[in-house]
Design a protein that fits this description.
The structure is a single chain. With 403 residues, this protein is mainly alpha-helical. The protein is built from 16 helices and three strands. The chain has a three-stranded antiparallel sheet with strand order 2-1-3. Strand 1 and strand 2 form a beta hairpin. It starts with a strand and ends with a helix.
Length: 403
Amino acid sequence: MNVYHYRAQNKMGRVVQGKIRAADVKGAHQQLKGNDLVPIAIRSAEEALRHDAAAFARRRVNARELIVFSRQFAALLNAGVPMIQALQALRKQATCRALQAVTARIEETVTGGARLSETLAEFPRAFSREYVHMVASGETGGNLVETLGRIADWMERELEIRSEIVAAVRYPVTVLIALVLAAILMVVKVIPIFAKFFARARVPLPWPTRALVAGNAFIQEHWLAIAAGVAAVVAAVFVLLRLPAVRLAWDRLKFRLPVLGTLYGKIVISRFARIFSALVRGGVPVMKALEVAPGVVANAHLRAAVREVLRAIQGGASVVVGFERGRLFPPIMISLVGIGEKTGTLDDMLEHVVAQFETDVRYALRNLTHSIEPIITVVVGIAVLFLALAVYLPIWSLSGVIR
């Protein structure tokens, strides 16, 4: 019995879809008719996956799913399982429908004689350029198993850094959002009621209450203009950041921000160094690695610096001189690149750079969290005091009037 995917129309005229087991397409057709369904399309499981592969080609695959895929693929190949059988097992094992469909397409193409890296390149939303180039180098060098394991390690470290960044900013962002929502609730709901009550009692309102009342009146009278203004600003920022010159200036400014600029620079450069090291270690030529590696970093300023490095090397300069002309990379990285170039251990030296920067980033994130907490506490205290005065000062004034 085979599994078939179907789309059909029921008695109510609604289109339904599902799976059915039958000996062949004709049997599936008869079963659907017996269930009072009018078949629209019937595909075998393999055909459905191939159809889905085209639909999912533009969708991203979850990074964790891709890490598991890479590790399992490496384990199967290391155990001596032929690549086609390994891909079949991965397709059946995958829990993500997009990855399952993409794996089916990869299996079909590789069976037809294509190289694995060529097939992966057909799905740029699932497999990045860095992933494809590392796989290609593993195929050429005959160390695909090791390369897949290295890819999984690289992706895991990327996720760890992102998780640490999210953990560092989660507390202040949550507190600020809660504070803004509380202020909006006070301005829109609470303060207007107090204002009407005290106006009838002819009690003069203190300045914190008057400020909130004025804010409420302004929002109610001009909320449409405020919403349109915010939308216009967001749209303008989005459009401007698509301009190469503006994007370059903005990304350059990120490196110069007080306090956060140094941390951001270390994060960005460590990500670049990590993928650059992985590509070089996997056998990708330095020039090609420098072309591919910046793609993992969404910063135009860094990409411009790497292009400067490439131009210098193409002009006959050494790798270390190229990095010096990039004018963005820290002295420790330039020194280690120079040592690695002389001793033929460039990938090892880049790993040292990555390890040092990741350690610095972890310490910086912890210090940032500890530094932000007292600032957030002071800001929340001032805001709560202001809101409390806006509510309780009129009550005290009213009690004085009554006395």
